């Protein structure tokens, strides 16, 4: 049997319309496209929900950190005057800081409030006659006696804030 010529096929399509397999394929293609689009849409929704969930976790973590920082700030800890980074701790009259400051005081009754008052009094007294910010340092004197000093190079003054006992 002879194959129909290209021109006879075209003339048949003009009479009948497009080939039947094209229409069938088109009908199959639409649901597949729709299913693919729905799948893509669901993936995008899932990704968006994952991003929102991650953002909410991050926000919750930030809020917890802020809450902790606020609680520490409200507790008003005494910042080490030497390093100005860490909080001073006073235990049984011993003044300590993570920076290495260690001064065993002569007074086991020394508290954070008392040391804060000493520091504030000396700083306020200094600021009456000098606009510059004094510096603080720990020195080792005789007999391994440590002292916390306040000094100002601008006005050439110094003061002993706290002295340890050997």
TrEMBL record:
<dbReference type="Pfam" id="PF14767">
    <property type="entry name" value="RPA_interact_M"/>
</dbReference>
<feature type="domain" description="RPA-interacting protein central">
    <location>
        <begin position="22"/>
        <end position="69"/>
    </location>
</feature>
<dbReference type="InterPro" id="IPR028156">
    <property type="entry name" value="RIP"/>
</dbReference>
<keyword id="KW-0479">Metal-binding</keyword>
<dbReference type="InterPro" id="IPR028159">
    <property type="entry name" value="RPA_interact_C_dom"/>
</dbReference>
<dbReference type="GO" id="GO:0016605">
    <property type="term" value="C:PML body"/>
</dbReference>
<dbReference type="GO" id="GO:0006606">
    <property type="term" value="P:protein import into nucleus"/>
</dbReference>
<keyword id="KW-0863">Zinc-finger</keyword>
<keyword id="KW-0862">Zinc</keyword>
<feature type="domain" description="RPA-interacting protein C-terminal">
    <location>
        <begin position="79"/>
        <end position="159"/>
    </location>
</feature>
<dbReference type="InterPro" id="IPR028155">
    <property type="entry name" value="RPA_interact_central"/>
</dbReference>
<protein>
    <submittedName>
        <fullName>RPA-interacting protein</fullName>
    </submittedName>
</protein>
<dbReference type="GO" id="GO:0008270">
    <property type="term" value="F:zinc ion binding"/>
</dbReference>
<dbReference type="Pfam" id="PF14768">
    <property type="entry name" value="RPA_interact_C"/>
</dbReference>
């Amino acid at each position: 049997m002879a194959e129909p010529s290209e021109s006879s096929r075209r003339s048949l399509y003009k009479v009948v319309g497009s080939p039947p397999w094209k229409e069938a394929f088109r009908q199959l293609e639409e649901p597949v496209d729709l299913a693919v689009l729905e799948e893509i849409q669901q993936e995008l929704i899932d990704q968006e929900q994952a991003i929102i969930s991650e953002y909410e976790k991050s926000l919750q973590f930030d809020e917890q950190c802020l809450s902790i920082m606020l609680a520490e700030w409200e507790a008003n800890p005494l910042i080490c005057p030497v390093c100005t980074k860490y909080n001073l701790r006073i235990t049984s009259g011993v003044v300590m800081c993570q920076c290495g400051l260690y001064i065993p005081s002569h007074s086991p009754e020394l508290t954070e409030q008392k040391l804060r008052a000493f520091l504030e009094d000396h700083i306020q007294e200094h600021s009456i006659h000098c606009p510059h910010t004094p510096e603080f340092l720990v020195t080792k004197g005789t007999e391994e006696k440590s002292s916390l000093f306040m000094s100002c190079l601008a006005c050439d003054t110094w003061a002993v804030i706290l002295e340890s006992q050997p």
